[in-house]
Amino acid sequence: MAPHKIIAATTTEALKLVREQVGGDALVLSTRDTAEGVEIVAISPEALAKMSQRPEVKVAPVLSPPASAPSFSGTAPEDKRVDKLLAEFSEVKQLLQTHLSARAWDDMQAQSTEKAEALRVLLNAGFSPQLCGETADQLSAQGPSDVPLMDRLQALLESKIQTLDPLSVFDPGGVFAFIGPTGVGKTTAIAKIAARCVLRYGRDQLALLTTDTFRIGAQEQLKVYAKIIGVPVVSLRDSEDLASKLSSMKDRRVILLDTAGVSQRDTQMLEQSQLLLEGAPALKRILVMSSTTDLRTQEDVILMYQMAEKNEKSRAVTAAIITKTDEAAQIGPVLDCLIRHQLPLMFLANGQRVPEDLSQANTAYLSHRALRPRMLSGRLNIPDDQIPVHMADQLNDWIKAS
Ligand SMILES: Nc1nc2c(ncn2[C@@H]2O[C@H](COP(=O)(O)OP(=O)(O)O)[C@@H](O)[C@H]2O)c(=O)[nH]1
Ligand SMILES: [Mg+2]
């Protein structure tokens, strides 16, 4: 159960051996260059836990121990010391991982300039380290090719975006709730889609509903659009209301439900999810995602919605809409979330005009634009020497693939 010392010609090989001999979750304790090659000392988490267990010392029963006798009873100061050690250990681990990542990056640049270039392009386009690592691996697995790198990357990205024909979504009919945080463009998207539904199914086959009773004026916005296209709008307040309103609209083929613009971290979001679950169990969810939202916030939104509606297949998101592609400098982050969560993309909204600025998802356009961010300043690009820091957590994946 002691730490393992492993020596190999390159860091990549040494880490491969660590993975094989100590396990995928091995903790690297030290690394250095030796005459025989790169030396890595690693330990498994189980062995570390065993080593850090406090010794069980049997103290002879004495009536009054001497004042200087050490205490082994697991006192609070002792616990603090262990916590401090663990915190220091995790800091050292982070440092080593970044250091190893830098070496793996050097190795990669030396061995496969295409793979390194692919990583550089994808990271600068705003994709997550996870997707960057995976896509660069796929590219290098294709082997040598005469096709330019950007074209190959574009094709790879394109193949990862799932799309859905809007007709297949709305033709069967039903209740469609548009969900997403404040200001992403839900109401505007509903207005654009409603105009298309009127043309396809007729005015008497469509109704608009809103749960957006939180903000003054929110319903007015929908009412204005509804008036223009000549369809009714109903406001909802509680779950009973929703169920009864829906049953009174059985003759309508498509019902578009506008939800309140609440933060994903607000309790109102949970209340609203509950209202939809109870009032319309068969409802389909359409997630509206703005391309101007940053990667972490977008991820947070998706995870919070998943938590609010957990464990029910029927509650999964049916389709996604990406809005504000006209405003975003880069669309990598929103595409990244779409791809990693396997959300089928239905529409793209590229402007404020109702009903014009809405088009069916075009994967070739999306991947082309994603790889060529419209940044005015190249100064925001990630410098080469910082790439390993961004990719440190992906280190294990690199080693696995190489
Ligand atoms: N530039 C741009 N603005 C949009 C787009 N979609 C919606 N908006 C604007 O974003 C703002 C918020 O839209 P709204 O539909 O009220 O968002 P909601 O809170 O999610 O319902 C409004 O000013 C819309 O005109 C789009 O695709 N591009
Ligand atoms: Mg709204």
Task: Reconstruct the topology from this structure.
Elements (H helix, E strand, L loop, with lengths): L3 E5 L2 H12 L4 E8 L2 E7 L1 H7 L24 H36 L1 H12 L4 H13 L7 H12 L5 H5 L3 E6 L6 H16 L4 E5 L7 H12 L3 E3 L3 H9 L6 E5 L8 H13 L4 E7 L4 H14 L8 E7 L8 H9 L4 E5 L8 E3 L2 H9 L15 H5 L3 H7 L1
Parallel strand pairs: 4-7, 4-8, 5-6, 5-7, 8-9, 9-10
Antiparallel strand pairs: 1-3, 2-3, 10-11
Bound molecules: guanosine-5'-diphosphate and magnesium ion.
Magnesium ion (MG) binds next to helix 8.
Strand order of the largest sheet: 6-5-7-4-8-9-10-11
Structural class: alpha/beta
CATH class of the domain at 166-360 reads Alpha Beta
Count of discrete alpha- or pi-helical segments spanning 4 or more residues: 16
Helix coverage percent:
40-55%
Radius of gyration: 28 Å
How far is the N terminus from the C terminus? 28 Å
The name CATH uses for the topology of the domain at 166-360 is Rossmann fold
Secondary-structure element order, as H and E? Answer: EHEEHHHHHHEHEHEHEHEHEHEEHHH
| Assigned CATH superfamily of the domain at 166-360 | P-loop containing nucleotide triphosphate hydrolases
What fraction strand?
A: 15-25%
CATH architecture of the domain at 166-360: 3-Layer(aba) Sandwich
What is the strand tally?
Answer: 11
Mean pLDDT: 82
Unreliable parts: 54-72
Q: How many strands, what sense, and barrel or not for the largest sheet?
A: 8 strands, mixed
Small ligands present: guanosine-5'-diphosphate, magnesium ion
> Which shape, going by the Cα principal axes?
elongated
